[in-house]
Amino acid sequence: MLKKIDGYSWAILAAFGFSMKAIFVKLAYQTAPVSATTLLAMRMAIALPFFAWMARLGAQQKPVPLTASRLGQVVALGCLGYYLSSLFDFEGLRHITAGLERLILYLYPTMVLLIQAVLMRKPPSNRAWQAIGLCYLGLAIAFGHDLQLGSQESVWLGGAWVFASAVTYAIYYVGTGKVVGVLGPMQLTGLSGTASCLMVLAHWAITDANTQPAALPIQIWGYATAMAMFSTVLPIWALAQAIRRMGTSDAAAIGALGPALTILFAWWWLGESLSWWQMAGMGLIIIGVIRLKPAKAPADK
């Protein structure tokens, strides 16, 4: 019993950390002009040593030869999960609220289900279709709420970026199922995270190197550090601890706190609106995702 209670504490900590990522991004954008690429590069540069440490720790726990084939799979997963998906997400946050961003991202289990259905050539069950319908009805309500409050062009553009992030992350999630059994979750997260950090930094060096991050306000570095430590490294570790103590299904259920926490903190710290329509949309999405009974995600973005 104590072990499961301890697992709940770890799972709540993970949900809290993941939910704060969008808040830190929005605060950074409000502090000074900074591109999504530069902000993401700052976050990943800080997180890189910790991803490398996870990879080393995972290799010690489960020593497995890293063949060229497996390395290629890890690089592909890193490209999808922490590089493209994170970049799309950061771009989207330039245009939409943190609350709407979290709700769109939280749809990824529906996308995982549909991708797996296509790959396995097996249509989802009626229960799954009902859950998917609830999720997208909730998104329509929340999306309509933001369309009424802000620029329609910005909401559509930002929503498209974040939806692309969710799709990319869903593909990454499906791909991890092919590799995680061999490398283990810790080593896979560390290796794919390390690969994505290097990709992000290379992208920044090619497209945005004249930004001079050292000249940015210290607050920007503070938010980037908070994203790297509190909303990347810590929740990934906490989620792994929660799953080890209480199992994947219970940990995933507690992850449903994420959208609610993001919307609450966005209202509190960013001054974003908090309406009954938005809460209704969030409720439908959370209920739909829980009905899908998603497995544990490898990590958040």
Automatic annotation (TrEMBL):
InterPro entries, sorted: Diverse_Substrate_Transporter, EamA_dom, EmrE-like
Keyword line: Cell membrane, Membrane, Transmembrane, Transmembrane helix
Taxonomic superkingdom: Bacteria
Pfam families the UniProt entry points to: EamA
Residue span(s) of domain EamA: 7-142, 157-290
Main subcellular location: membrane
One annotated Gene Ontology cellular component of this protein: plasma membrane
Transmembrane segments: 7-29, 35-55, 67-83, 103-119, 131-149, 155-174, 186-206, 218-239, 251-270, 276-292
UniProt topology in membrane: Multi-pass membrane protein
Cell location: Cell membrane
UniProt xrefs under PANTHER family: EAMA DOMAIN-CONTAINING PROTEIN, OS03G0707200 PROTEIN-RELATED
Protein name: Drug/metabolite transporter (DMT)-like permease
Species: Chitinivorax tropicus
Native organism taxonomy: Bacteria, Pseudomonadati, Pseudomonadota, Betaproteobacteria, Chitinivorax
